[in-house]
Amino acid sequence: MNAIDIQSITKRYGDTLAVDRLTLTVPEGGLFALLGVNGAGKSTLIHMLCGLTKPTSGDALLLGKSVAREAAAVHALVGVSPQETAVAPNLTALENLELMAGAYGLRDAKRRADEIIAAFRLGEVEKKPARTLSGGWQRRLSIAMALVSDPKILFLDEPTLGLDVIARRELWAHIRRVKEKATVILTTHYLEEAESLADRVGVMAHGRLVAVGAPAELIEMSGAASFEDAFIALAGEGVDLS
Amino acid sequence: MRMRAFALRTMKEIARDKLTIFFGLGFPLIVLALLSIIQSNIPVSLFKIEKLAPGVAVFGLSFIALFSGLLIARDRCTAFLMRLLASPMTAFDYIAGYLLPLLPIALLQGAVCLLAAWVWGLRPSLNTLACLGALLPAGALYAGIGMMCGSVFNDRQVGSLCGALLTNLSAWLSGIWFDVSLLGGAFNAVARVLPFMNAVEAARAAQAGDWAALPQPLLILCAWALAALGGAVALFKRSTGRN
User: Which of A138, A187, B22, B156 has the CB geometry, 3.0–4.6 Å to A85, for a possible disulfide?
Assistant: First the structure.
């Protein structure tokens, strides 16, 4: 079974077409990176796949569950790490994890939170209020919170935005471990991140999917010399950058 | 279980905010102390402790709107609520998780204020328990108003609306600080229809053990509290797209 099966999904806000009849399948396991310039429709697509926004038309099946008709079932399958660091500021790191375990109805929230603390090496900050943590720790906690429920599909929306190179590489290592167990959908503006982590990449422009393939396939498809050039050729659609 | 986890979070977020503790617990006590000192030097019938204490307790509850409004507005304006909305939590889990912890906080606020009033001469009595009971719908009213504001406005707007406008409005229209009838018939009539004066009168009647005077203001207050909670549920669902 495919992890995600998107069937001609469309989202319209008034006169604006945010996502236009997009069709895509993502097999189970591995990491799929969704790339595109600002306003390409990535976030709208992710919101629809998480069951946060209803499609105007079309549908998507997540492990066989329809985002249009079975949002509650979809919510039980997915974990989301939003673009902004999304933590409860006055709760400690441990309490944030316990909250998420409770939000997913896990019976042994404390034990699960402890497991995640160990897996993400959050022990030294577990008793500190989230608001006092550095950006890197908050980001790590934010991703850890998305994994408490052991989701089958994990959405990471620009997970390393604003992190220094060391913190970014550390998170990459975590993400590589996660993609062994779950299907990860990653959006990012860092092309080297997508090239390094993704098994397949989808490029969006103007609400449509303009190319899909492994990073090497996209380079070959575009006839470009590098992944960045390939992205510019595919997403820029003839923009003159000379 | 999901609601319990979320309610626990709401409780912790509010209880760990220093401003909450100051405005919720400290500020009403300062007001109570200042007016009691004035009363001991220049006696005014309105500021007799048996009238003043229930009034200040109701005034303190107006900050519940600020706490709940700010929490919800901040959750909405950050990605935190988005994260939770992608979880299996239902609309009931959210609404109960936001509202239910505010009621014990309201009771605690009222209890601290009334116990402090014993120091200033309020006669210890079982009626204080009845007064606390009468404060509960006022707590629900302010929680509902806060949730409505938090569902519509951002945190800065909520700060202005609930922190300045609402506390002033509820002070002016409550009869805590002055006799509202002094401002004329129209003002008095409006104040009698709105919940603020009824909340104070219900609390005063319960504290005095004047059971005949209790039902009417309490019923009006409960009706407003239910309306505020209904409005809060509708606006929260609309703002989050949850049904």
Answer: A138
Chain B residues touching residue A103 (CB < 8 angstroms): 2, 5-6, 84, 87-89
Q: How many CB pairs under 8 A join A and B?
A: 80
A161–chain B Cβ distance below 8 A for any pair: no
Top residue of A99, A108, A112, A132 to mutate, by most chain B CBs within 10 Å, is: A99
The residue of chain B nearest to residue A154, with distances taken between CA atoms, is B86
A76 within some domain: yes
The answer to whether the beta carbons of residues A220 and A226 sit under 8 Å apart is no
What is the CATH classification number for the domain harbouring A73? 3.40.50.300
Out of A81, A90, A149, name the one closest to residue B13 (CB): A90
Q: Per residue in A101-144, pLDDT tens?
A: 999 999 888 999 999 999 888 999 999 999 999 888 898 899 89
- Which residues from A are below 8 Å from B4, CB to CB? 102
Q: Which of A81, A95, A104 sits opposite B87 (nearest CB)?
A: A104
Q: Is residue A65 part of a domain?
A: yes
Ranges of residues in chain B whose predicted pLDDT is under 50: 243
Q: What is the ipTM score, two decimals?
A: 0.84
Question: At how many degrees (to 10) do helices A109-119 and A135-147 cross?
Answer: 130
Among B5, B82, B241, beta carbon nearest to A99 = B5
Identify whether A229 is part of a domain.
Answer: yes
Rg (CA), chain A: 18
In a domain, A215, yes or no: yes
Biggest CA-to-CA distance, chain A = 58
Q: Is A75 on the interface with B (CB under 8 A)?
A: yes
**Domain of residue A40, residue span:** 4-86+152-235
